[in-house]
Amino acid sequence: MADTAAASGTDIYYEDFFPLGLVFVSPEWEATPERIIDFASKYDPQYYHLDPVRARESFFGGLVCGGFQTAALGWGLALQTGMFEKCAVAGIGVDDLRWHLPVREGDRVRLEFSMVEGKPSRSKPDIASTVFAYTMKNQHGETVMTMKLVQLLRRRPVPER
Asked: Which of 10, 6, 13, 42 is nearest to 115 (CA)?
């Protein structure tokens, strides 16, 4: 497992994610009530994301992040590693998104990710199509979310001769 928190600002490209399956780890993020409520008030205004008192009576038994907050957070944590700073071109899609456990108030989560497929483009040799597997875990090591992101990445520039 590679700790990539210090990678920010380096020139990382498609070729640097090999061998396939090499795991990179993000910094941690804490689910504070303020962060949960702020996101929910804009994008997912349900009481178990907004109201700590009423949330205790919900299926979840307390305040939790919305699923799409968790998914967005996954990409945000990947970006914090700096691994995509130079090479990200575009996201193409999300496959197999699953929320295994809720992210609860007070949880600390981190993202583990690895490239599981990669293929240089035939028509654009400076770009590659990739699939990354993302696994978010809480402070207990429990998987809270998994997804696969299909992404276009820049390839390392070839020096001119």
From this structure: 13
Instruction: List helix spans (H) across 27-156.
Output: 33-43, 47-50, 52-55, 67-80
The domain ranges of the chain are 2-154
Instruction: Please state the φ and ψ torsions of residue 79, each to the nearest 5 degrees.
Output: -65, -35
Q: Name the token pair of 76.
A: 């945000």
Nearest CA-CA partner of 32 in 63, 57, 54, 55: 63
Q: CATH for 2-154, among 3.10.129.10, 2.70.50.50, 2.60.120.10, 3.30.700.30?
A: 3.10.129.10
pLDDT in tens, 47-84: 999 999 999 999 999 999 999 999 999 999 999 999 99
With vertex at residue 66, the alpha carbon angle to CA 61 and CA 68, rounded to the nearest 5 degrees, is 155
- Enter the pTM of the model: 0.90
Q: Are strands 24-25 and 2-3 parallel, antiparallel or unpaired?
A: parallel
- Decide: 20 and 98 in contact? Cβ < 8 Å: no
